[in-house]
Specification:
The structure holds 2 protein chains of 2 kinds. By secondary structure, chain A is an alpha+beta fold. Chain A folds into 2 domains: 76 residues, Beta-grasp domain (Ubiquitin-like (UB roll), Roll); 81 residues, [2Fe-2S]-binding domain (DNA polymerase, domain 1), CATH 1.10.150.120. Helix content of chain A is 31%, strand content 16%. Chain A has 5 helices and 5 strands, in the order ββαβββαααα. Chain A has a 5-stranded mixed beta sheet with strand order 2-1-5-3-4, sandwiched between helices. Chain A is globular and about 50 Å long. Chain A starts with a strand and ends with a helix. Chain B has a domain of 101 residues: CO dehydrogenase flavoprotein, C-terminal domain (Enolase-like, domain 1, 2-Layer Sandwich), CATH 3.30.390.50. Chain B has a 5-stranded antiparallel beta sheet. In chain B, a hairpin with a 5-residue loop joins β4 and β5. Classes of the chains: A alpha+beta, B alpha+beta. At the A-B interface, β4, α3 and α4 of A face α2, α3, α5 and α6 of B. Chain A: Pathway: Alkaloid degradation; nicotine degradation. Chain A: Keywords: 2Fe-2S, Iron, Iron-sulfur, Metal-binding, Oxidoreductase. Chain A: This is Xanthine dehydrogenase YagT iron-sulfur-binding subunit. Chain A: One of its GO terms (molecular function) is metal ion binding. Chain B: Pfam families: CO_deh_flav_C (PF03450), FAD_binding_5 (PF00941).
């Protein structure tokens, strides 16, 4: 059975009828032609489909579209402004932070969302208890980005790319 | 995935009525486990009642010094809450040790408690599994045993409960407030989940249509000295082989009070009551911790493929208690 939902993706509003079983990922990729979020595992185990959902990073493969009617979504493609790359996109290029590129949109969106979480003062599993301020060292970046797998193992370049943006 | 209906209730009473009237319905919150199970064909509800915007998203102080956590509070927000980090660090750490940043932003407090086992046979509809289809058998007993239970399993099921958060909640004697067709209930987290027995299909004592409204954290001063330790096959973004949630109150070198719970070892968070009894009044030294761990693990009945969990749990218990009691305990070896 179809339900009408409205989604705002990268600044454009879309209204579409979706089957109740349709995830945000499939609504974007199969119905709207928005292929920036990638389908890796489709089970919340790889992070390739990561989007910003109402401002926070989330796995779009596990979110049903009907449950997120009216959502504000940002994909990696929507991070660029006025034809200019987002600093995170630029840093990934400068640091050669990918090989095949399939996980890259999810990595970039996740990294942007992760830095927002740091700004909000959120701890991670490796944050020392009682730390007033998070020091985003390599261990912190690796832990906070552990939800994004890269089968090419470009981690060695992904970490410094994110660190560069974090410093600026 | 089978076709299914989706409904968003106007309020909690309507949601409860909707689900009570649908024997094959399920509540949907964050969906991080349920949507996955729908895709796998493991969960086959004909109706989803969305409660994500119905229950509380607030973390509130209670008059008695405890804290009330709304069922819709996201795992990430609960973990980051300054009061939780200060008064119940074990809970914050358990949440941060679970899943990933983007999953914690979707997952809710109520949903986390009700997530299903990650037993590979439960999640694979081509294999026999008593939990998924009663009476078909248990593939894990003679199969891949690494992740299975060492406590409280039955002939019918050896699966473990996957939640980290629930282990911390069991340790601090948290309570779950529910609302169902028969009214409200207050259930200790230690009694929320069941051992499999002859009905492994039932993870919890909740009745059909019963909705988790809040989780209540009782005042527990010494929980400020608590921590969660998770041991797993990779350093992050993996389920526990063994985990330990502990809080200790040491006065003049003696354990005045202690809370200890284990994860990854049973069909429910395993409150280590035997170890707690031995520890209360004992000197806060490594030998006491080892004796307590041994007493608790004496009841373990591991399978050949997960016998390693016994010494692993022993070491994790001792290490966690040493971390909480400082170097003074180590000198007492």
């Amino acid at each position: 059975m179809d339900t009408e939902v409205t989604l705002r993706v990268d600044g454009t509003t879309y209204t579409l009828g979706v089957d109740t079983r349709t995830t945000l990922l499939d609504a974007m990729r199969e119905r709207l032609g928005i292929t920036s979020p990638k389908k890796g595992c489709d089970h919340g185990q790889c992070g390739a489909c990561t989007i910003l959902l109402d401002g926070w990073r989330a796995n779009s493969c596990l979110a049903l579209a009907v449950a997120h009617d009216g959502a504000e979504i940002v994909t990696a493609a929507g991070l660029a402004m006025d034809g200019n790359l987002h600093p995170m996109q630029q840093a990934f290029i400068e640091h050669d932070a990918f090989q095949c590129g399939y996980c890259t949109p999810g990595q970039i969106v996740s990294a942007v969302g992760m830095l927002d979480e740091v700004d909000a003062g959120w701890p991670s599993a490796v944050t020392a208890a009682g730390d007033a301020e998070v020091v985003l060292d390599e261990a912190e970046i690796r832990e906070r980005m552990s939800g994004n797998l890269c089968r090419c193992a470009a981690y060695a370049n992904i970490v410094p790319a994110i660190a560069q943006v974090a410093r600026s | 995935m089978r076709p299914l209906r989706y409904a968003r209730a106007q309020d909690v009473p309507q949601a409860v009525r909707m689900l009570a009237a649908a024997p094959y319905g399920a509540y949907l919150a964050g969906g991080t486990n349920l949507v996955d199970l729908l895709k796998l064909g493991v969960a086959t509800p004909e109706l989803l009642v969305d409660v994500r915007r119905l229950t509380s998203e607030r973390i509130e102080d209670l008059p008695d010094g405890g804290i009330l956590v709304g069922a819709a509070v996201r795992n990430s927000e609960l973990a980051a809450d300054p009061t939780i980090r200060t008064r119940y660090p074990v809970l914050s750490q358990a949440l941060l040790d679970g899943a990933s940043g983007q999953l914690r932003n979707l997952a809710t407090t109520g949903g986390n408690l009700l997530q299903r086992t990650r037993c590979p046979y439960f999640q694979n509809i081509t294999t026999p599994c008593n939990k998924r289809v009663p009476g078909t058998g248990c593939s894990a007993r003679e199969g891949h045993q690494r992740d299975m239970a060492i406590f409280g399993a039955s002939q019918e099921c050896v699966a473990t409960h996957p939640s980290d958060m629930a282990v911390a909640l069991a340790a601090i004697d948290a309570l779950v407030r529910t609302r169902g067709p028969d009214g409200d209930r207050l259930i200790p987290v230690t009694e929320l989940h069941r051992l499999p027995g002859e009905e492994p299909g039932r993870d919890t004592v909740l009745r059909h249509g019963e909705l988790i409204m809040n989780v209540e954290l009782p005042p527990l001063g010494f929980a400020a000295n608590s921590r969660y330790r998770k041991v797993r096959d990779r350093a992050s973004y993996a389920f526990a082989l063994v985990s330990v949630a502990a809080a200790v109150d040491v006065v003049d070198g003696v354990v005045r009070d202690v809370r200890l719970a284990l994860g990854g070892v049973a069909h429910k968070p395993w409150r280590a009551t035997r170890a707690e009894e031995l520890l209360r009044g004992a000197p806060a030294i490594a030998q006491s911790f080892a004796d307590a761990a041994d007493a608790e693990l004496a009841a373990a009945q591991p399978l050949p493929g997960n016998a390693f969990k016994v010494p692993l749990a022993r070491a994790a218990i001792i290490r966690t208690l040493l971390d909480l009691t400082g170097d003074a305990a180590e000198d007492g070896r």
